[in-house]
Amino acid sequence: MRSTVHPATRRDVQAVAEVLAALRGTADTGAAVLSRLSPSAVDFATERWQIGDLVHEWVCAPGTSGAAVVLYLHGRRFQHEEPAEVYAGPLSAASGLPVLLTHYRLAPRHPYPAALDDVLVAYRALLAQGFPADRIALVGHSAGGTLALSALQRLRESGDPMPACAVALCPITDFTLSGASLTANAETDLVGMDEVLQVRDAYLADADPAGAPQSPLAGAAEGLPPLLIGCGDAELLRDDAIRFAGKADSAGVDVTLEVYQGMPHGFPVLGLDSSADLTDRVGAFITQRLSGLSPDTPEGPLTIRRLGWASYEITTEYGTRLLVDPYPSGSEGFHSGLPESHIRPAELADVDVIAVTHAGYDHRGQAVEIAQAGEAILVSGTATYQAAMRAGIPAERLAATVSGVEFRYRDVTIKALPAQHESTMRVGGQFVADQPQSFLVTTRAGSRILCGGDFSLSEQVRTWGEIYRPDIAVLGIGGMRLGPVRVTELPPAEAAIAARWLGVSTVIPVHYPPGDPAPAQLAADLGDTVRVVPLAFGDTWTAPTRSHEHA
């Protein structure tokens, strides 16, 4: 278990003291706290979604991605609603994802298990909507933290797929109220024991306080997804959070425990320095876990290794290997006489992802054969996709792309962009057309690489630079001779213009034979404004660390 204790800032110490002085002893401290909150500084929009008899709420901060979602279970004692600006909006901004704010049925009119049943219905609705379980993060605060942990136990028992990760902030995990902090923190928390007893009785009604999953601590923790559990060390329920974290850790669950010194119950929504820090950590945890990464995964530099004519391998900061346009050797149709690489296809079978910008043989190359030899996912246009299907590659390892489509794997996002080019491949003696694409590759660590493939200069390149702001561009700057014509889609002078429009700091040229003057022409046209990195077949470039790059 990764456990961190965060000291309180001087500002937080003063703010908590003022809140305690003003609100301790209030019958409903949650309502009193909300009445003191300043309007959220986070912009967001909402959209209703009716699931069965209940209307839930999509909450989206600007710039969110639709590749995954957060299912958020609000607090407020199981008995009251919570406006989106309290936590769902900030959570959407921190995670960069749409947040589904569940409006579950409320106690005491609808006691346990009504709210839990509603949470499970909402989760299964997301699955039915097409969101895979491994693209869903479950987050709950206070009462919602309890519901999140209870939902995980129910999902495991019913055999439903688990979400990618879950977050429980300030949860009640033991309704027998046996935690030592209930006594030890009696004078330091906003919430009093009378309030805790009222919450228990209203929520459980006739349910057994010692039973699971209503008291998650009483249930088994084996088989749960990665957890982040957060609490304040001054709250009555501190030990509920810490004991469940310890139980899950002992059961082999990957647990991150964040404890904030001097913080009372409900501090995540108090607008404190600690509140902002925890929300940022929750967002980072969700991003990391949706990438399939552990916090223990070391971060290294991004590298690009040139493999052949138009082929190269990107290894991300977290070790994901992306093979682009894998043509090392061979010929097909007019794609003949190209320089061949000493790197054999068999050496590339252990990559994670193969991305093909278009079906021309000098880019498609041995993509299908390499995918057959390993377990890589093949990302391509429809022509290569169909060839891979015919070759027997399972559909779950094939991702067909057209302009605008995004594909995500671990810490990598690949977005297909329309390339100004024409592409065909030979199938059964016939030429089959394919839509040429460029790819924008974005890594979790923040690198942005424009994988150009074959494209000619057009105004859309300037638009890519304005919208996507890549750091690195891999550009095909040479060409091949067909009869009396040298076919060069992006000659060095135009590649220099493209690099300036894209706003990149580094260009790695490909698509030219050894001994060609094209890289020198490109470097001369760019001068000192952009770094040009020519690579021989097999050579590797290591990107500067981002802090150094932006120093």
Largest sheet: 9 strands, mixed
* Strand content bin: 15-25%
Instruction: Record the strand order, biggest sheet.
Output: 1-9-8-7-6-4-5-3-2
The value of Rg in angstroms is 27 Å
Q: What proportion of the residues is helical, as a percent range?
A: 25-40%
Give the N-to-C terminal Cα separation.
35 Å
Name the poorly predicted regions: none
The number of helices is 16
Got a strand count? 27
Average pLDDT for all residues: 92
Structural class: alpha/beta
How does the overall form come out from the CA principal axes? Answer: elongated
Relevant terms:
alpha/beta, seven-stranded mixed beta sheet
Question: How would you portray this structure in words?
Answer:
With 551 residues, this protein is an alpha/beta fold. Helices cover 29% and strands 23% of the residues. The protein has 16 helices and 27 strands. A nine-stranded mixed sheet has the order 1-9-8-7-6-4-5-3-2, sandwiched between helices. It has a seven-stranded mixed sheet with strand order 15-14-13-12-11-10-27, covered by helices on one side. The chain has a seven-stranded mixed sheet with strand order 16-17-20-21-22-25-26, covered by helices on one side. A hairpin with a 5-residue loop joins strand 10 and strand 11 (312-315). Helix 14 (492-502) crosses helix 15 (518-526). The longest helix has 18 residues, at 273-290. It is elongated, with a radius of gyration of 27 Å. It starts with a strand and ends with a helix. The model has no long low-confidence stretch (mean pLDDT 92).
